[in-house]
Design goal:
Blueprint (H helix, E strand, L loop, with lengths): L7 H8 L3 H10 L7 H12 L7 H23 L2 E3 L18 E3 L2 H19 L8 H7 L1 H9 L4 H17 L9 H19 L1 H10 L7 H4 L4 H9 L9 H21 L1 H16 L19 H9 L9 H22 L2 H13 L5 H17 L2 H19 L3 H14 L10 H9 L3 H30 L12 H8 L3 H13 L4 H21 L5 H22 L3 H8 L11 H10 L1 H15 L12 H13 L9 H30 L1 H9 L1 H13 L3 H16 L4 H18 L4 H14 L8 H10 L3 H11 L2 H11 L6 E4 L2 E4 L2 H5 L1 H27 L8 H15 L2 H13 L9 H40 L1
Antiparallel strand pairs: 1-2, 3-4
Amino acid sequence: MSDETRDTDDETDERGDSGPTSDAETAIHSSEELSEEEQKEILQEVERTRSPRGPAAVIVALLGITFSAFQMWIAARSYVFWVPISDVSLWPLQASLESTTISLQQLQVNALHVTFALVLAFLLFPASRGTGFVARRLGAVEPAVERRFGATHPITRATARVRAGVRWAAIDPSLSRITPIDIGCLFLALLPVYYTMTEFDEIREIPIFGIHAARPIQEVYPWTEPVVMALATVGIPLDETSYAFLMGVLGLLLVLEATRRTLGPFLMALVASFIVYAHWGYLIPRDSVIGALSIQPESWGNIVYNLWYTVEAGVMSTPVTVSVRFIYIFILFGAFLEMSGAGKWFIDLAYSLTGTRKGGPAKASTVSSGFMGMLSGSSIANTVTTGAFTIPLMKRSGYSPEFSGAVESSSSSGGQMLPPVMGAAAFLIMEFTGTPYADVIIAATLPAIAFFFGMWVMVHFEAVRGGIGGLPRSELPDMRSSIREGWFYLIPIVLLLYFLVIARFSVNRAGWFTIVAVIALIAVVTAYDRQTRIPLFATIAGLTLAQAGAFATTGGGLVHAIQVAAGLEAAGTPYPLEDAAFAAASDLGTIAILVSLAFILARPRAASPLLELDDEVDDTAEHTASKLGRPTLAGNSAYRFGTFVLTSMDSGARTATTVVVAVAAAGVVPGVISVSGLGPNLAALIGAVSGDSMLLLLVLMGISSIIFGMGMPTTAMYIILIAMLGGPIEDAGIVILAGHLFVLYFGLMADVTPPVAVAAFAGAGVAKADEMQTAIIAFMLSLNKVLVPFAFVFSPGILLIRVSGDDWWIIGWADVAELGFFVPEVVIPVAGMFLGVYALGATIIGYQYAKVTSLERILYTLSSIFLMVPEIPLLITEAILGLFGIPSMLTIFSVTAGLRAVGLVMLVGLTQRNRERALETDAEFTTPATSEG
């Protein structure tokens, strides 16, 4: 409900004295912040997205909502869908024709998933803005013709008309107009999925008879025969070409085009080169330097089949399956939580907790950006949206614009390594390593905390150097008020952890139940006020108890019990009391939603004192109500709640579009490696290049991750690199989970690494700072992502992993009790990691208690390396000794522990010396004043 229609008495009663808090909120959400329009402009420039208007905006929103509804159904009901019985004959069924349900195959579901993303990509991302290399070259044709023939020549006029036609058909410079070529691509994208859905039996026969044995188009669709025959007479043999082959080729081309639009030409060119390589890779001479890359000849038919029509390799393979089952539902969960107002509340809470400290605004940014980055999975979007609040406050407190943008972008990109959500990466790691999700997030916890601890240390040192204090308490939200007003936002996070770690639900079900929990939470908050709070909660509790009783007596829910009482149904087997209570608790979210909706509809104009939805929801409610000619609807509780649900679904779909396109395109790389048999040869080549050195292999992996990750979503980078490096990781004896997290950390480093540094450039846009300088600072602030991965690869105990031979597992209480293992393998490496991160912070900022000299920086760096990864200098020493034929084994515990002790002594000594210098400096400033007095 809008501010104008709120019941202020109720609001004051619920929130207490809101005067100071309101002033503080005004200070936090100040005029220095970016407006919604400015945020969208920055995101458009960085992500190249368009903002459709009018009917196009409605169509895009409806498609996004439908995409999310499709994925929510899958999360709740798996791949079984209800259809009208008259439509059943159109589908390849596993049920009888009398059934009204269909069960889709994995390939069909994946095809629908990818098609939704392709359609949205063609609508949200322009084919060209007219500023690219090709567009500029073509744009120079008309002036050249005019200079050659003159302005009035027919050729010049014809060229001008062609140019105008091309611009109308394909170019969208203002990022607001859907062009004819976009509409054409949209309809073409529907053809492959329609074929997959309606001709699945034929697709099943392709492995037996071959793709070219499938029917040509005129046999699949007889009405096309006149056109096909006409084309055949002019030399286009569509009548002899398999329609399945044509659809596979079309699908691959559309994925490449969507990749170019959403992710840029680099990933598109990389994927296209792998497709070309799959056919012509056999031409590489086997006796050449890269002879290991030579493969067996393969036909286009087999390539297209394997890359489009199978779920074992190619576009529809594991990455897209993971997106269908896990990634999308958690992106949607993040969207619901953000639109509920949790983002604003968490930022306010972070400022209330840290804002008065030295450098408090930057510390609050580190905490809040990490939390929101964990949910959104997008470094760029999180940098802009969260940075719109945090960056102006950092600048106001005294941080430079460049440092402010760098802190925000570095923290936002680091959020994707933060459990329990970890953006989308955790689900891919789970699938590719076969590791339970709970184990993945447990292993990822300590390194992620170490990274944010390092960020905290560095912003503190920068604050000390610049004399930057915190904000006055009067300008900050009151901590008690913040907690009291928004503590319920933590419920979905707590439930998510419960579902995943304790209840051990499947990831898909956990995501679904958590989304229901968010919707139920906002429904209850919308319905809640002083008059309704008792009857609202009493009704929810009563119906939940009645539901449990129904399960315990009739074996079904309350509706089933009513049907049994009316003689319409027979009673089932009663549930035991514990099972009945659990079943009723599973329905609590649905019950809360239905009861709350009843209260909302009964009192649509009632105040909702605790409801603080995201600004985008309120803006959408006002805009749509105005378009409907009923602007007062924007203040209607039911309308706002409905807007919240639909806006969240639309936002989730838009965010997921880029991810789905990325994983679909990236799936081609492991597909080609698998189909061509390149894997063993590639592993041998990488082993030869690295000289079978684990350290050199890790360095190559890190550099490759940064290069491949530049301007590319982390998911795509991860899929491509694991396809190429998965074998060498295992051959090198690296714990597989540690190796995959290593790739993830370095891939995230790419978001802030010049010259691309997309997240850092977004932060610079918000901060109105120099882009390259911001990127350089963000890169330096993120150097923890470089040393920490080396630390946990060499010391798996940091990941709470115990290794025994070829086996490994997450440590349990028995391992903790075994002090001979736990202290040297876990406690010492973890302590070394945190101390090393602290030392690295002093190195990067060049300040601790006082200025750090150049020589001291070198010593701090050595201290950091000795504490975190003593194996690096020891392995280098081993390699040098090996050159002289001196065998050595230096990376044993007694040596690494000794080197860590040296690093600790160095850190303590340097810190003490730095502190003494700071005290001397203070004395120099105070002594003259004292003597004068």
